[in-house]
Amino acid sequence: MDSETFNLPQYEIPEDLRHAVAVTTLDRLYNWGRRSSVWPLMFGLACCAIEMIAAQTARYDMARFGMEVMRPTPRQADLLIVSGTVTKKMLPPIIRLYNQMPEPKYVVAMGACASGGGPFKEGYNVVAGIDKFLPVDVYIPGCPPTPQALIAGLIKLQEKIDKQTIKEASWYKRKVKDPNYVPVPILGPDLIDPRRTADIKAAAAQKE
Q1: Could you give the domains of the chain?
Q2: What are the pLDDT digits (tens) for 41-87?
Q3: Long-range contact set of residues 27-31: C-beta below 8 Å, sequence gap at least 24
Q4: Which residues in the chain belong to E strands, given as ranges?
Q5: Residues sharing a CB contact under 8 Å with residue 42, sequence separation 6 or more, in sequence order
Q6: 3-class SS at 29?
Q7: What is the pTM of this model?
Q8: Minimal CB count within 10 Å: which of 4, 45, 73, 151?
Q9: pLDDT greater than 80 at residue 207
Q10: pLDDT digits over 168-206, tens only?
Q11: CA–CA separation, 110 vs 147, rounded Å?
C-alpha cells in the first residue's frame, strides 16, 4: 500500500537534508564510540613504560586515537598496557589491577619481556610472558618497542573492537560470578605470602 491509499500528504525532502541521514548498525555505532575512547591505565613496569610515556607527548600525540586519558585508577580504565618486565613479586598486583577494571577490558603486552620474558626469561624471578596469567589481546614486539610501534598496536586493538558484537559480548550476559576473574597467584617459595606467616615462623622455629 502506498500513501495515496490513505490520502497521506506527500512530503518533499529538502535538498540540504538528503545527505544528512546515515544508515548504520547498532554494533558499528557502539564500537565506534568504544574504540574512540579507550582509557589506558596509568601503569608502567620497566623501560617500556618510558616509550609508553613518550607516545603521549606532542611528537606522537596518541590523543588522535582517543587514548590520551590515562587513568590513575583501574576502576576508570579499560586498557591495561603491561609495559615492561613482569617479575613474580609484581605479578599479583598486576592481576589485582586487572580484576578491578570494569568490562569490557583489554590487555596489551608491550615489549619482549611482557610477551615472553625477553632476555630475562630464564631468570628465577621473571614470569615468561603475562599471557600465562591474563588474556592478551595484542602483542607488541621490541626491546623496547618505539612509540610508533605502540600506536600501531593500539590501532590493531581498535580493529579488534570494531569486529565485536553486542549480541556475543560476555560482559552483557547475566552471570552470578564473573568468568573473567583471574585468581591472584602465589608463585614459588621465594615470595613471602602473608597467609603463610604462621607456617614460615613454625619452620624457622623447628630449624632452631
Answers
A1: 10-207 (3.40.50.12280)
A2: 988 888 888 998 888 888 888 888 888 788 888 888 999 999 989 88
A3: 27/164, 27/165, 27/166, 27/167, 28/162, 30/166, 31/161, 31/162, 31/163, 31/164
A4: 79-83, 106-110, 138-140
A5: 70, 71, 72, 77
A6: helix
A7: 0.73
A8: 4
A9: no
A10: 777 666 555 665 677 777 665 555 555 566 776 777 777
A11: 10
Scan for cell 583471574, then name that residue.
Answer: 182
In angstroms, the CA 40 to CA 188 distance is 30
The residue written with cell numbers 610472558 in the block is 129
The H or E element spanning position 203 is helix 197-207
The CA distance from 140 to 156, in Å, is 10
DSSP letter (8 states) at residue 68: -
User: How far apart (Å, rounded) are the C-alpha atoms in residues 7 and 2?
Assistant: 9
- Cell numbers 625477553 correspond to 118
